[in-house]
Amino acid sequence: MSRPGFSVFHMQQVGLNCFYEPSITAVQNFSASADAQKLKDAMKGFGTDEKTLIEVLGKRVSFQREEIADAYLRDHRKPLLDEVKSETSGDFRETLVKLVRDLLFVEAQGMHKAMKGIGTSERRLNQILMGKNNADLERLSEYYQLVLGDHKEDANRTLIGDVNSETSGQYRHALCYMLDYKRDEYAGDSMRTAIDRGGASVIDERLVQDDARIVYECLTSRDKNLDPVCQILFTRSYIHVEALCKEFAMAYNLALYDVCDAELSSDFRNLVLDLLEYCEERSLYFARLIRSTMAGLGTKDDDLMRLIITRSEIDLASIMAAYESTYRKTMIDDIKGDTSGDYQRLLLALCGC
């Protein structure tokens, strides 16, 4: 389990010239045993002290929650996950369960849910895979098989195998590029240098120009050979794709997003548009996803929980700022309007409230 510090994954998400702000950070003077004892006391005897559960699990980052779970098992001889399931209920319990588990296990559950039963939720597949580095995608695939075991399904199946069977066409090719761990990445020292120098040290400008030309020609030609477009967008680094968008606009006086919107179709178009928005306006991309979980009738609680939990220690504060700027309403107000009780209070704690 990685510990806080310089994360290549986080740095590869930041783009060339901007950083992102989490809503929760690692607690200083942290004691896993002390927190485990607080949780034990909160769930002991008649009734449950939900406020303490929120104050502990809603204010700790993932590696601290993992250490708390380890301390709980060591000190109290019971799995924290089982205790939480036994002592809580409803959406509050589901959120706590996700907090106690590894973040990538939670996202593997989301992948399974997206492909289970009749039909596939391509939107959920896109948002879970977007921005992951190759190492995290590999771990996601490993956790997916654990999820299959939890559901007593064929453990010989694989994530990439299920994606192959549940999707088709160019969309399937793009997802398989991602799940075959093909995307270019940079070592941590290279990323530090890139940030210091505005990205120039890791961006091959000639390659960016060549890629912009190839993408333009493929998208605007009559026969529309999309294989090179797919390979470029889903094997180049996220920073390279961001630079490609800028080069495309300068070279052709067109936004690559708009050209793809007009020239592509179906699930592949949606995935490409998600990628381009992620690379150019990441905070807005996730703000839109969170907004979609609360728009219209009903709330997509499982997606809302997952997005708030997984973004909280990466960039949720930045996402909340983009949300308010775009929708002229705070994310906090929308969460208050769509949720209630301890579930609401736990989500707000993860938002830094």
Automatic annotation (TrEMBL):
GO terms for molecular function: calcium ion binding; calcium-dependent phospholipid binding; phosphatidylserine binding. SUPFAM superfamilies: Annexin. Keywords: Annexin, Calcium, Calcium/phospholipid-binding, Repeat, Secreted. GO terms for cellular component: cytoplasm; extracellular region; nucleus; plasma membrane; vesicle membrane. SMART domains: ANX (SM00335). The keyword Secreted applies. PROSITE patterns: ANNEXIN_1, ANNEXIN_2. It is found in: Secreted. Pfam families: Annexin (PF00191). Belongs to the annexin family. A pair of annexin repeats may form one binding site for calcium and phospholipid. This is Annexin. The lineage of its organism: Eukaryota, Metazoa, Spiralia, Lophotrochozoa, Platyhelminthes.
